[in-house]
Amino acid sequence: MTIDGTALPSELLVIPQPLIGFCGLDIARQVVHKSIWDAFSGTLQRKPADRERDRAAVQYKLLPPNYDFPVAKPKRVSYEWYHPKGILKRNWMLKHLHVLPSVVVLFQDIEWNDSQWTEKQVQCAAIVQALKNALQERNTRLCLVLLQKSAPLPPGEDMLAAERAASLTTACGITSKMLFILPHTEHLMGYTLRLESAFLDMAQSYYALMSKRIRTHRDQLSAAHTSLKIRHQFKLGFVAEMRQDFSTAQKHYLQAYANLDEIRINDGNCMEIKTVAGFLNYKMCRLMFKLKIPRDSINQFIVHVDKYKSRVGFKDLAFEHHAWLSTQHSIFAELFCEAIKNGLPALQIQHPGIYYQKAAEYVIKRREAAKQASETLLSSSLNPTDASQSQANLYTEFFGIRAVKTGDPVAEQQMNMQLCELERNYNHSAAIIALLSQAMAQFKIYKCLRFRKKLAIDMAEEYLLSGDHAKALTLYSLMLPDYRDEKWSTIFSDVLLKTLRCALLSASVADYVACSIEALSLRHHGEQKERVLLLENLWQVFQSVPPMPQTQLTPELQALWGNALSTVKSPIQIDLDKVRDVLELCATFQQVQLNNHDVLQLHLIVRVLTDVPLRIRNFQVLLADANNPQNSYKLEALKYMCFANLLQLRQSQQAERLELKTYEKNMRLEPGCYYQLLCSTEAHQFNENTQLRIVRLEAHMGTDKIAALLTCSANYTRQPFRHHTRSRDLDDNVTINPICYIAPTFHLSTQTNLGHGVNDAPVSITASGTTISTTTMLVNEYYPVVSTISNPYNVYLQNVGLHISVPVELRNSVFLTTDVSTGRQKLHSQIQIDVGELSAHGSNTATFYIFSLVEADIKLQQRLSYTLDVDRSAAGGSVAAAVSQSTTPNSSETTPEHVKVIGSSLAAISPVQIEYLDETRLRKSREDTLSVKCVADFKFSARFYTLNRRPLTQVYRGENFLLRANTEVLAVDDVEILDSFFICDHNLVQSNYSFKRKKYTNKYRAGDQLESVIVLRTNAALQDWLTARDLERAKSEDGATNKFMSRQQKTASSGNIGDPPPLTATAAAGGFMSKSLMAKIPTSMTIISNSAALQPMSGSMQSDDGKLSLSGAEESAVLPASGQDAPKSMRIIFNKALEAVQATGHHRGFIKGVYTLDAAQSSTIPKFGVFCIRWRRPGVKEENESKFIISGLDIAEPPLNIYCTIEEKMFVKMPMAFKVVLKNPTTHVLHLITTLAISKSDNFICSGHKQLDVSIMAYDEKELVYNLYPLQVGWQELPVLTLEYNTKADPQKNDSQNVLLDELVQRALPKRVFVLVSVEL
């Protein structure tokens, strides 16, 4: 029980639950009783979450055998003359929560068939009667539970149980509803839950009757009994909480709180009124949070505090009023936190931290009021009271009423003195720190960081007041960087001085040194004499002397400082990037780039920013490799110059000779002056191709015993506000170079000759190499490149190699090779040429060829490398000392942004790369770009025509047609065309006339044109075209089938063998070639043509320069990979057109591999073949091939094939044969009527059937032979042959189908011939 009037009692803070008492259970000796108790109390195999979910809110109490129940008070008949001494009694809540149960349950071990039934029945009846006597005039419910070993039988079946149960209830004087059976079997938990429900119903009836009795007493009260009304309303609310009726409870508490306003408050009853009001407010706020009305709860608390905030009471006991306010805020904050855990959202402007912070403020006021009251009361002439006097003597049995006689000034004074004495023993600082820590946690959760910092400062001040200087120093040190960054100068100065004081009182040497140095800044609000004193104390610490005279230090503090100074770790690191405005450091390289034999010089500019002089022991600069930060070097400044202002410093940059002074240890640096210190070392101490970066600047301050290491990063930050004159900003007067590049030496030079021919003009050879071009590169040409590699230095070079690679964006169209001999034209995407060894001033040549399919500006990536013997033992000298990474502060671990930008720009100064193979050998490589412009060689176009020279849009199976190939020379230089030929697909047939190669002997220039005519025929439609697999399978089949079965089998099996679509002849070969490539078997893959797209023919039969495409082969399988391992997995491509054809005849066969630049090539367009042109440059042996894909047309099934045979030469008055062959390509019989009509001019005399009925069987043919006798010379019109269906023999045919026959005749038969003069004439 809490008797202090400034704190809420524990019985008020708990949630009221019905109290049920258990009698007759011996849990210490009976295992069964122990299991039953555990089952009811919820500890038997049950988790708290499960209990809260499916168990009722009930409190069980195990009653001893001789338990003393509270004696009932005599009932009052009337309250007319009753005047209570207080409002709420202290023991009422305790009595109903823990002492007086609502239900008493008696457990007895009795079986229905027990042999001692009579004796146990008499014993049970006696115990029940004793409980009734103890609970006399109480409404406590009583019930009996029989513990049995077996489960009871259903009602009506066990007659013995029914008989003995009736006998037992009669003997005990209870009803049958008060008797229960509890079998202790494996289903004990289920029986327990059923009994618990019955017990809870009894408890509810008990508390309902109790509420009714209290309500009856309340109704008897008059207007004069205000305190009794409040008491009865509180009881009704409390009992309603026991019944879990929270809405009713909240109403009763609210009514009781309203009744408090009817009592007049004075100094005598002020404490009691506030105590009861605090109880009621706590109950109301808690219930409002539980009822999900948090806004009402917050408003109620605000109104409550505003109402009683000014009710102080006795002025001498004002601390008691502040303690009450603090308790109200802290308790409400706890309620707020509990509601948030249950799902209530909070805001930055309304959260528990606000109330915790307010509670801490009232505790501070409580301490001040207690101090003032102690000075007032304890300084009187009265004797001080005994502080050990029991607090129980200070209060009565009512809350908020002290045990003092009213109207006795002496007793009241004595009581006040006793309270003051107790208050002096209270630890206010601990309470304040606890509340502030809770408030900080809440402010952190709700992102109120700035207010959290303020609370941390308040907590540090409390630690400082309480004497815990170490914790105060920790908090101040944590908050100091925040206020430093936010530039709150006033707050920062106050916090800094308090931190310095805590460091002094806790003997923290490192913190004292850091705070003393930072306090020297002009940002600290103080006078110069104070900074001088700080500097003197700082140097005393450097000399291992406490900072204050011994007369001003306590013995304990002197001992602390002695131990701290003897164990301090020196040097003490201080980051000047955080501790600013004390010392300004800036470093810059004198030159941005140096050679390996130069001297590296670095300038360090120092300025003291405070108004007191500083003594610095030495300055050092830490350098690191920008690519390998783990390699670091430290340089010490040995020379210096002093300048009064920036103008003199800027003028010194232009002077040729300057007088440098030697820097001495602990030299005095005056405020306001600029000191330029010089650091120098040999550049050969560092690795070549290295970017040296200034990482950190260091200044040592102190003595050999104790020193401070002032460090800052090399990142120079420009001021946010620039001055209007150049004499104020450092970067306007000094060029700051944070990076210096150590350029490497490359020992090779190159001269590159492009094209055929030799240039006799003198060429200058430089380190970067020269390029000479004699001819322009053409598409499909093996363009030679000759590189002369020279060593102009007195060194011996090994493993000299030249690596050339094609850019990624051109690797589909540009290739490289080193061998162009016949049969070995293998193309690569990158090549490696091993030059070997080069002695001093030696040279060698490397030749390779470029092959391109497109017109483009080719930029090859050329890398020249070699190995060299070196000695790395000389790296790093005595001046540039290696530095361990562990000494690098955190501020310098990250590279500044502007330094990164400069580093990336300096990386392009030299393309030389250095790789150390071991301690004695290194490899140097340089990457260059070789630019070659490639122009077009030929422009090719192809057109299809019928035999009578008409443009062709569709080809019929079995029809002869013409291919006219036109070529225009686009080469800027003269070329020699050796020959040209056409390779057709296996499903096409060339005439013998087409096999005659045209020989070319003249040189051709740009604009010259050539033409070739080829006669072609296809015997199958596109869906019936054969593939290479079909041909091989047909050869392997045993036996021959007739032409009917072969065509049907071909059609039926075309979709079942898994071949690619037969629309292109290369589709099947594409997948096969892809597998070959992946298996590193580069067989017969051909690169043909140079166009950038392959498009179907237009209506004018114009074909772009096409090229073969490798269908199904991925680019990764054709192109070589990049990197050092590329030559091992190099993919090669052959470039001879005939090598890509699986020949099945002369210039006829299956194209194995097709490679194209057009990834979106349509697969529905057939490819009829490849047109090749072999050419070379004049006077050059290397031959080249330009190859063009001939995109075909759609092939349809014709109703009739017509072939015409006529003599090549016709002479006048000499007979000649005119033969027409009609072939039936269908499975039906054709019935035709043929008519031969002679022109009116009678140019010919004709013999033969002028009109004939013809019937042609399926797949059969019919020949029509006519003898023509020319009568005139020159172009003559031939007789016209017409065909039409015989509708009488074949009624399914009609006249509309004769149009197609007429079209076939017009396409196949010539109209005119040229008749020559007879030789005899």
Automatic annotation (TrEMBL):
Q: Which residues form the Trafficking protein particle complex subunit domain?
A: 269-521
**Which residue ranges does the record annotate as region Disordered?**
1037-1061
Q: What is its main location?
A: Golgi
The protein's UniProt keywords, in alphabetical order, are: ER-Golgi transport, Golgi apparatus, Transport
What InterPro entries does its record include?
A: TPC11 (IPR021773), TRAPPC11_C (IPR025876)
One Gene Ontology BP term is: vesicle-mediated transport
Q: Does the keyword Cytoplasm apply?
A: no
* Pfam families in alphabetical order: Foie-gras_1 (PF11817), Gryzun-like (PF12742)
UniProt record similarity statement: Belongs to the TRAPPC11 family.
A GO cellular component annotation here is: Golgi apparatus
Q: What does this protein do?
A: Involved in endoplasmic reticulum to Golgi apparatus trafficking at a very early stage.
Q: Which residues form the Trafficking protein particle complex subunit 11 C-terminal domain?
A: 1232-1282
Listed Polar residues bias regions: 1043-1056
Write down what this protein is called.
Answer: Trafficking protein particle complex subunit 11
Give TM segment ranges: none
Cellular location(s):
Golgi apparatus, cis-Golgi network
